[in-house]
Amino acid sequence: MRDVVDSDELLRRIQRARACADEETRAWRARGEELEQTDPGGAREAVVRGLAYEAVLRVLDEIVTPGAHSEEAGPPAGGVS
After folding, report:
1. Domain range for residue 15?
2. Helices 7-35/40-64 angle, 10° precision
3. Do the domain assignments include residue 73?
4. Residue 18: which of 71, 68, 73, 55 has the closest Cα?
5. Tens digit of pLDDT for each residue in 41-75?
6. Whole-model pTM?
7. Predicted confidence (pLDDT) at residue 33 exceeds the cutoff of 80
């Protein structure tokens, strides 16, 4: 895996990864909502997986547009600043 890529190709790859993370975030949220009444454990797992993809999404957003989302984010979850 020693391919040399230019900045345009790197940006395209990051944008594809961002689109994938966005799609997975939405899919896991929907899955969690589906399982909420019938499988609480599965719903919790779906929420955790959705949050993981959401974190990846935030990191990729920060790479593509540094500082653009810092005002919207607010304090981290759990009340720890």
Report:
1. 8-64
2. 160
3. no
4. 55
5. 999 999 999 999 999 999 999 998 888 776 555 55
6. 0.73
7. yes
